[in-house]
Amino acid sequence: MAEKGRQVRQKRYPPYLKGDHPVRSRLFPFVSRSFVPSVFTVMNMVCGYVSIVLSGENSFVWACWFIIFAAFFDTIDGFIARVTNSTSDFGIELDSLSDLVSFGAAPAYLIYKFGLNGLPGISGIVFSSFLMIGSGLRLARFNISMIGYSKESFSGLPTPAQALTIAGFVLWMKAEPLFTGKALQELLAWLATVLALLMVSKVNYDALPKPTVEAFRQQPLQMFFYGAALFSVPVFHAKAFFLAMLLYILLGVIRSLNLLFRKWQT
Questions:
Q1: Tell me: the pLDDT tens digits for 202-255?
Q2: Count of C-beta atoms within a 10 Å radius of residue 33
Q3: What DSSP assignment string belongs to the chain?
């Protein structure tokens, strides 16, 4: 009878993970191991929503920062899930929904309010929607078949990288308005189009390495680049942040073209 009661509770509260300790389940009937990483995932979603609200109020700098905060929480939730061995289907689905808000809708609305709304007709809506569409397709492909994911690399530009590129560019333009008016609008349109295409492409991108001794030994050049990019941000501010993201994008494209050329030669 007790076993049957536990099975009913499992069905009633889907966040339970298979193998949860029965004593802990009785003491905390609403909490499972997946609860803690899910809190950070929800914070990711909340940051994305706040970014959208701030973009609507033309607070573009803070809108960018909340996209950056969302990326931070997106990194933390995955790390905690792996450390606590609490990965679940529920967490994966929640993570993708949060990513669509924070790295799809938020940057799309950000660039629309920042400049694309000045394009004639519905052009601004169309170009900004590319980021939303690209993010949705990228996340859907990941969810249904796990295509594009391994421990070392991604197939297609990751949605957080796309969103951080947009945030870095807007922060740079707010600090140093090199492009204004029509030039800014055209640049944003091109940026949205290219980033959307890269998300749904098969261009291979490295996962960010963990700062461990083994990582420095196996990938010294890559770790040096990431370290230099990190320390350049406080010195050169938004410009360095955007250029670091741009370099990450270009390295993936160059490497994929190089591999394609080698295959063509053979």
A1: 898 877 655 556 656 766 666 666 666 666 666 667 788 898 889 889 888 988
A2: 22
A3: -HHHHHHHHHHH-TTPPTT--HHHHHHSTT--TTHHHHHHHHHHHHHHHHHHHHHHTT-HHHHHHHHHHHHHHHHHHHHHHHHTT---HHHHHHHHHHHHIIIIIHHHHHHHHHTGGGSSTTHHHHHHHHHHHHHHHHHHHHHHH-TTB-SSEEES--HHHHHHHHHHHHHHHHHS--S-HHHHHHHHHHHHHHHHHHHHS--EEEPPPP-SHHHHHH-HHHHHHHHHHHHHHHHHTHHHHHHHHHHHHHHHHHHHHHHHHHHHH-
Q: Show the tokens assigned to 164.
A: 């951080």
Tell me the pTM: 0.80
Buried b (16+ CB within 10 A) or exposed e, 75-104: ebbbebbeeeebbbebbbebbbbbbbbbbb
- Reference 66, options 35, 91, 96, 45; nearest CA is 45
Handedness of CA 66, 69, 75, 79 (dihedral sign): negative
Q: Kindly report which listed range (64-68, 163-167, 236-240) carries the lowest average pLDDT score.
A: 236-240
Burial degree of 35 (CB within 10 A; 0-12, 13-18, 19+) = middle
Q: What are the structure tokens assigned to 1, written together? A: 């009878």
Query: Are the C-beta atoms of 64 and 110 separated by less than 8 Å?
Result: yes
- Written as one letter, the residue type at 140 is A
Query: Cβ neighbours of residue 214 under 8 Å, at least 6 residues apart?
Result: none
Bridge partners for 149 per DSSP:
154
Q: Is residue 113 a contact partner of residue 62, using CB atoms and an 8 Å limit? A: no
Give the CA count within 13 Å in the CB-facing half-sphere of 131. 34
In one-letter notation, the amino acid at residue 59 is S
User: Which residue has tokens 């796990």?
Assistant: 146
